[in-house]
User: Fold this.
Amino acid sequence: MLLPPAPSPWFFRFGAVCGILSGLFIALPGAIEAFTGETTATSFVLGVSPAFATPLLVALHLRQHGDAGRAGTIGYAVNLIGLGLFGGAAFTLNMALFGLDDATLDEVLTGTVRVALLGSAVVFAVGTVLFGLSMVRTGLFPKVPSWGYAVMLAALALLGPLPDSVFTSLVHVLAGASVIWLALSLWGWIGSEQAPVHGSAAAVR
Assistant:
């Protein structure tokens, strides 16, 4: 199969750094909100976290696509689209709508708006499950954060409509920790291998 030129190590480091930031921006607000509830500061940080997740997702896919097969590519495609949709929804909810009172918010989040928000969460959840399972299957990333990516990020999206609680805060922390762990694994791989991404896992070991 004809593949594009392999990205430079710089691109993978960029993806890893963005992933660490994304994970921190998910986990830290979740931990803080367990004690303080949702605040303007935590909402702002959560709202920008998906933007940093996108470079990580691309880098993770490029790291494993030679071993992930068609199922992995489909999972990546659904995850990428879902991240764009859910990221836009999260940005809107945490930035533009955070300051609205409950009555106004209930009035805004009705009809097609509610359907669109729920739909974005479902697409993102399906994508994270599929892509997370592809990482588990290839074995190129640690199993624990790969499962955490598949389960906790999907739970994060689906629990969004529920009121904040200690449980939702715990999901945020575990999801963020999984993202950080995967980013650190990616950084460690490119730092030790300096190898092109194309080809099988055996070619980079």
Q: What stands out?
A: The mean pLDDT is 85.
